[in-house]
């Protein structure tokens, strides 16, 4: 199954294996698009004259026990053809609610027509279904707010940052308030001062938009997919409150310890390192870590602590004389140490 999301728009695709024996198949989990959960399924339907059809069902917020919500959405449901121009598509605009929470099409395409290899829908017994959803409005829940910064706004934006050839319109004061990098760029004695357009090198457009959505008011959340690139940009542009938000997320997420240890040393996140090391509480857990494909990426400072931790497990009696040494893994400090680059500022 493939899910691609961008704010209030989303694209869902999943393959139906062994299509010829299809009874009913649905997605294994329900992605969120436009602050609503969606479920896509396919089934076989027999008419009174024994004609067999492929049926498709799209549900909004299945199992959501409330009568206070509604969702206006444009939906495009497609039976994918190996020749894109022959893809079978239907477009529907509907208000979903607890009363009308689904689109159910019992006769989407005749079964034998889908199965016929010459028609291009079925390949190696597999058939692909797609649904493209654009949520226009919500009632009873908030819309996902994700600014694109693609257009200037009067009295709000006063400079365009060029990222991968695209203009990103921002306000100097807003960025300078949260980022020493941009404060220096906009207001110090650099050649960029006073320019209406400033190019940023080495930055990906979509990743930079994510960072801006955390600086400006929006509903963007930090997750496993975006935390690393947001952290990289927040560190580069010295947006320390976003670094702190990334750190809090990393401490709470179920990301593998090896990934946390790599990120912690790369960005000097002491509490993330502490938590990850504390979770490696047995020799077996460290042995599993040692054979992980990313083990060699762990930084030298963390490797030192791992070595001492292994030694303690094997020769604990050698360390009892100095239980309060700096490398102990007892209670965490009240607050993480301030990164060196922040102290210098």
From TrEMBL:
<dbReference type="InterPro" id="IPR000210">
    <property type="entry name" value="BTB/POZ_dom"/>
</dbReference>
<dbReference type="InterPro" id="IPR008974">
    <property type="entry name" value="TRAF-like"/>
</dbReference>
<feature type="domain" description="BTB">
    <location>
        <begin position="157"/>
        <end position="224"/>
    </location>
</feature>
<protein>
    <recommendedName>
        <fullName>BTB domain-containing protein</fullName>
    </recommendedName>
</protein>
<dbReference type="InterPro" id="IPR011333">
    <property type="entry name" value="SKP1/BTB/POZ_sf"/>
</dbReference>
<dbReference type="InterPro" id="IPR002083">
    <property type="entry name" value="MATH/TRAF_dom"/>
</dbReference>
<dbReference type="Pfam" id="PF00651">
    <property type="entry name" value="BTB"/>
</dbReference>
<feature type="region of interest" description="Disordered">
    <location>
        <begin position="325"/>
        <end position="345"/>
    </location>
</feature>
